[in-house]
Amino acid sequence: MAMSSGARAAGVKTAMRRGGVLMLAPDVRIHERTIAREEAALQAVAMAMLQYTPQVTLAEESTLLLNIGASLRLFGGIRSLCRRVRIDFRSLGFTVRMSCAPTARAAWMLARAGSGRVLKQRSSERALARLPAMVLPTARTFTSWFDGIGCETIGDLRRLPRPGLQRRCGRELLDQLDCAFGSAPEMFEWVKAPATFEAQIELFDRIENADLLLTGAQRLVLQLIGWLCAMQLAAESVVFKLAHERGRVARAPTEVTILLAEPTWYSDHIMRLLKERLRKLVLDAPVIGLALSTTQLQPMTPPTESLFPEPGGTEKDQVRMIELLVARLGEDKVRRVKPLADYRPEIANRWVPIQENVREEAVASQMPPNLDGILRPTWLLVKPIPLLVRDHRPFYGSPLRMVAGPERIETGWWGGAAARDYWVAEGQEHALYWVYRERVTNTEEEQEPRWFLHGLFG
Amino acid sequence: MGSLVELHLRQPGTGELRLLQPVLAGAGKRRVVMIQPPHVPNSIALAAMGVNPSQVLWVQPDRTADALWAAEQVLRNGGCHALLFWQSHVRSESLRRLNLAAADGESLFFLFRPLAAAQDASPAQLRLAVHPVLGGVDVELLKRRGPQRETKLFLPLSPFFVHRHASMDRHLSTPAPARSLRTHLVE
């Protein structure tokens, strides 16, 4: 039986009946223990731990053993590694008791008995000698006998004569003691990462707000990272499926795809992009489960660092910033230029979403070759504004005076014909405007040519 | 190095970008980000100013909150050469946050606000009011480090219209009847 700290504070004790528990704490939730779910959870956690070392194994009584001897240098020492593992477990949603020791069996025993971190063999022996003898599962069958002879700790157990102990308790107990104290080698079957990655979790409640899915998604992403590290791959796109209720109101799962410009195997960037996407997402139906899969994978490549770091971060940081902007604002709100070689200014000045691949030579080839003689305003209006005409002068806030021009643009006879004479005009407040007069080609009606404001000299 | 410079204008199109042209032309390989500009930026004009149009990023969010968030992200990243941000109403806490984010990074940060906001307090180190005049702009230094300067600073801006100083007999192509000769003679 396991209980949360809130339940313990309410006074619930082990071996209480259901009725008693409900009387003490009426809003407590009682779950039946399902071995299958526990095993699935252990597998998930083992997968997440694969990012620290490829040697992870499942031991008895819900224990995970990680051989981190080779990982210490990469992760900056035992303390920072332990800290990271603890943070990961908190994100995964489990409580953990961690311990370290030079041998696997010693670490197992220390973790079952409490916690403890020992780094050398001698301090390991001292710590083990203090542990109660019942820590070892093989010793538990002989509890009454050990009580009778006054053998309480592992240290006492070690002092007993070996032939007698072997005859009475069997070879296994001696083997375990030897492994713990480093006299015998230990062999394990390491957890193997599956060939393709798929993970899912079931949520406790029906979630209506997409923001709350983040913690569940964090757990799945950690598993993904572990798998990627084990297979030495990097993910280019990640697909989250939000499963809705089954039964009569069943509907297809909602898919959220996150595309990355550069393949990555770190969790924080994926989580940031997912957070922005979930914030915008409106759920049609409550979500009861989450699944994660990834299809586009590439082998891991180390980051190519230049010898001198550029001021203000690398190009990769820039790409990440742009991805973040696109994730929150939407694809078409972040734009880059892709000009077209056309005389009509509104066609030439074309802006496309940033995700479109535009080569710089393509941009350069579509720009006018000689920029010196061209007079163009820095701001173009989306739609030209028709101007009033007073005293045969166009009027915009004040009568406009022509200062430079005219520039005749007559093109687009195949569609969107434009016959315009452009001038630079100055208002009384000395702001400069780019106006044009439509050339009236159809002389059936006698009408004044119309003036339009097309740009501002910013 | 990065800090907030505020420019106050009565209306867009008074020479604000041309004023910043030497700064923007020095971008090199780094990006220039424009958030919520008043109108569509013209790529040919930017190229003529010396800014590579491929380096310009135009961000046009719908909501103010998104625009402020985007500005903060760009400043925190610090890899852009300059951030140009247009906003008519900014609360002072948002201004302070942006100022802090700008101080940490290396990007230049230019905030464009209407002239009416020149009265409000702001944490910017340098505040300018830009008025268009004949041949360029008059820059009024509303706030700067050091002693207050009362007189305005005149800065000539291209395009120069040299022929305006010539005689005004040159009428341009508007078919002006005789009555309109008396208007706009010599400034």
Question: Explain this structure to me?
Answer:
The complex is a heterodimer of chains A (458) and B (187). In chain A, 33% of the residues lie in helices and 24% in strands. Chain A is an alpha+beta fold and 458 residues long. Among the domains of chain A are: 1-30, no CATH class; 198-302 and 315-322, Dna Ligase, domain 1; 379-456. In chain A, the strands form six sheets. In chain A, strands 5, 6, 7, 8 and 9 form a five-stranded antiparallel β-sheet that branches. In chain A, strands 12-18-17-16-15 form a five-stranded antiparallel β-sheet, with no helix packed on it. Chain A has a two-stranded antiparallel sheet with strand order 1-2. The longest helix of chain A has 18 residues, at 214-231. The radius of gyration of chain A is 36 Å and the shape is elongated. The model of chain A has no long low-confidence stretch (mean pLDDT 84). In chain B, a hairpin with a 2-residue loop joins strand 7 and strand 8. Chain B contains five helices and nine strands; from the N terminus they run βααββαβαβαββββ. The longest helix of chain B is centred in the middle third of the chain and has 14 residues, at 64-77. Chain B is globular. By secondary structure, chain B is an alpha/beta fold. Chain B has helices at residues 16-19, 21-25, 43-49, 64-77, 92-104, and strands at residues 4-9, 32-35, 40-41, 56-59, 82-86, 108-114, 126-133, 136-143, 153-156. An eight-stranded mixed β-sheet of chain B has the order 4-2-5-6-1-7-8-9. Chain B has a domain at 4-129: 3-Layer(aba) Sandwich (Rossmann fold).
Characteristics:
heterodimer, A: Dna Ligase, domain 1, 5-stranded antiparallel beta sheet, 15 helices, B: 187 residues, alpha/beta, Rossmann fold, 8-stranded mixed beta sheet
Task: Describe, in short, the structure shown.
Chain A is an alpha+beta fold. Among the domains of chain A are: 1-30, no CATH class; 198-302 and 315-322, DNA polymerase, Y-family, little finger domain (Dna Ligase, domain 1); 379-456. Chain A has helices spanning 5-10, 18-24, 35-49, 78-92, 104-113, 121-130, 143-149, 154-159, 162-169, 171-180, 214-231, 267-280, 315-329, 345-348, 360-366; strands at 56-59, 63-66, 99-100, 116-117, 198-207, 233-244, 254-264, 287-294, 297-299, 334-337, 351-353, 379-386, 388-390, 393-395, 401-411, 418-426, 432-438, 451-456.
